[in-house]
Design goal:
Elements: E1 2-6, E2 12-18, E3 23-27, H1 38-49, E4 53-57, H2 73-86, E5 91-96, H3 98-108, E6 113-119, H4 130-141, H5 145-152, H6 158-166, H7 170-175, H8 180-192, H9 196-199, E7 207-214, H10 218-229, E8 233-241, H11 247-259
Helix pairs in contact: 1-11, 2-3, 3-8, 4-5, 4-8
Length: 262
């Protein structure tokens, strides 16, 4: 059953809560939401079966969530804070891709987060992200959603974009293209700011930094840098490829991590 909370700016955030036990909030990647991400829905079900209360929410501007303007990273942190409050005021986070970076910013902002699991945070060490953020915003502002999605995916293998354009999912991807600017803002703020050990100095809870056995070079490099910067982090390579994972693999890793004493 879908539940709703209202963020401070009036945005209505939709979420599903299943299971019973310590709360875990799933923070989606760019372009993902409950009705468009069956793998994460299945992950939530399996993780709930392992003894957790699992919250899977639609980030603003996607699925059943609205998007009061102006949006942006700070508003997304407020959304996540409202979700955490709804499940008791404290929770663990699982962040996928750019959602992993949003999870880090939320923890730095002071949300009561017990643990964070990160999946392939797409952070670059050789780019401050400013050009990327300006580029995605310019395309969104002029209403060119096709070009906005293509621009966002420009550093990915070209067959990923070709496959997306040829799929039945492409109209959905275009419909939520404006929200890609929020993901890019999270990345750009990280890449253009202070040293990560400084800008995320309050992220002192246990952090698990994951990447797949078969993956792009950016992800292991970012994982290593995150583990170096965060005071209580470790990295883990898991059986996964192409920036994706099988629910049964991910749930085993998350259940073990979230069950361990903090």
């Amino acid at each position: 059953m879908t539940e709703f909370v209202t963020s401070p700016d009036g945005t209505r955030i939709a979420f599903t809560r299943i299971g019973s036990g310590p709360p875990v909030v799933l923070v989606a990647a760019a372009g993902q939401f409950r009705a468009f991400d069956g793998a994460t829905v299945e992950l939530a079900r399996q993780l709930a079966d392992r003894g957790f209360t699992v919250v899977n929410y639609d980030r603003r501007g996607r699925g059943e969530s609205t998007d009061t303007q102006p949006g942006g990273l700070d508003r997304e942190i407020e959304d996540l804070s409202t979700i955490v409050d709804a499940v008791g005021g404290t929770a663990a986070l699982y962040g996928s891709s750019s959602g992993a970076v949003l999870a880090l910013w939320a923890a730095q902002a002071g949300l009561d987060i017990t643990k964070i699991a990160l999946w392939e945070a797409p952070l670059r060490l050789d780019d401050d992200g400013t050009e990327s953020l300006n580029g995605i915003r310019e395309r969104v502002e002029r209403g060119d959603r096709d070009d906005a999605v293509a621009f966002f995916m420009r550093d990915m293998p070209p067959q990923w974009l070709a496959s997306a354009r040829a799929s039945d999912s492409w109209p959905v991807m275009l419909s939520i293209a404006p929200t890609l600017a929020y993901d890019m803002e999270a990345l750009a703020r990280a890449q253009s700011g202070e040293d990560w050990a400084v800008q995320w100095n309050d992220v002192t809870m246990p952090v698990l930094v994951m990447f797949g056995e078969e993956t792009l070079p950016i992800f292991p490099t970012a994982a290593k840098a995150l583990v170096t910067a965060l005071p209580n982090a470790r990295q883990l390579k898991i059986a996964a490829s192409n920036h994706g994972w099988r629910p049964e693999v991910m749930v085993a890793v998350l259940a073990e991590f979230f069950s361990q004493p903090a």
